[in-house]
Amino acid sequence: GSIAGFDGRLIFVRSAGEDAWLGKEAPTNAAFDELEEEAVDPMFARGSGGDNGDGVLNKPIHAKSLRDAVDIAHDGDRILLLRGAHNGLGEVVEINKRVIIRGEGALRDAVVDCRNNSPLFRIKRSCVIQNLDIDFTGFSESVRVLGDERVKPLIENCIIKSSGGDGIALGGQAAPTFRNCIITGKKSCVRVYAKAAPTLIDCNITAADLQGVLAMKTSRVILHGCAIQANKEDGLVAMESANVVLTKCLVQDNLGPGIDVSQNAKAVLTDCDIDANVGGLWLWDDAAAHATRCSMNGGKP
Fold it and tell me: By the 8 A CB rule, do 225 and 204 touch?
């Protein structure tokens, strides 16, 4: 059966194979792709069983790239990236439809090799993305979410990496949920700005050259059961008028303070372990923090 709310068509995206790193889409396959001057298969012609009037209801739908699949998708459709390496084709996949995008098999079986200077995904509508390994090479974030408070995508069981920018950038009033993801960025792993209100659950936020999490403006960030570790500067920075709420989080082995709160920002920590950073919880300016049942160790000199 289909996932609740996604009972539309199933669109398959074939792997680009060994040429994915060259920026190519999947090669044409006569068994799946419509060819020039090709006659319609009688099995799918008008009047055949299961036809809804357009003659193609039961015909398998195949796309040669993720971008093509999203372009032809309708609200409620399911997009399945088959096992193998897929290519971002240097283009932004703008998601403004209610779709589910999922990688086939186990995590890392479906990899998106994206070489671009703009995000792979620009999400402007509630959607679901699952089970993808996004290997992004370029000077941009890998995933950007923006929009009003109705934009509430779910991204789960994914690996999200950017070699030259932030791992993810979240803005507007969007309220995405990231669950069980590994997020890595050249700059920050997670950058939140404007009035965005993301929730991160059971995520590993690691290996940034700057902060693991950067919360700015009037954003509100909720982290539950996350590990913020091994970043080259602070674990988490909250500044301006941002609010951060951490519950059952581990903040360790960062080369700056574990939690750094400044200006008018606020932090609430419950049942957190902050250890082996260069300082535990630092407060500056008019910042405020409330910690309950937390373990804090100043850590490295």
Answer: no
- Compute the distance between CA of residue 219 and CA of residue 226 in angstroms, rounded to an integer: 18
Distance CA 293, CA 215 (A): 23
- Residue 25 amino acid letter: E
Tokens of 81: 């990236």
User: What are the pLDDT digits (tens) for 178-198?
Assistant: 999 999 999 999 999 999 999
Distance CA 38, CA 215 (A): 54
Q: pLDDT tens digit string along 265-292?
A: 999 999 999 999 999 999 999 999 999 9
Q: What is the pTM of this model?
A: 0.90
Q: Has residue 31 got a pLDDT over 90?
A: no
Please tell me the distance from the alpha carbon of residue 82 to that of residue 63, in angstroms, as a whole number: 11
How far apart, in whole angstroms, are the C-alpha atoms of residue 24 and residue 94?
19
Q: Look up residue 79 and give its two tokens.
A: 């997009």
- Those residues whose C-beta lies under 8 Å from the C-beta of residue 21, and which sit 6 or more positions away, are 85, 87, 113, 115
Which pLDDT score is estimated for 299?
73
User: Across-strand partners of 192?
Assistant: 170, 215
**pLDDT at residue 17 above 80?**
no
Query: Which residues make Cβ contacts (< 8 Å) with residue 190, sequence separation at least 6?
Result: 166, 167, 168, 170, 183, 198, 200, 205, 212, 213, 214, 221
User: Which amino acid would we find at residue 205?
Assistant: I
pLDDT beyond 70 at 37: no
Amino acid of residue 116: N
CB 244 within 8 A of CB 238: yes
User: Structure tokens of 1?
Assistant: 């059966």
Residue 37, C-beta contacts closer than 8 angstroms, at least 6 positions apart: none
In this structure, what DSSP letter does residue 298 have? -
State which amino acid sits at residue 2: S
Q: What is the mean pLDDT of the chain?
A: 89
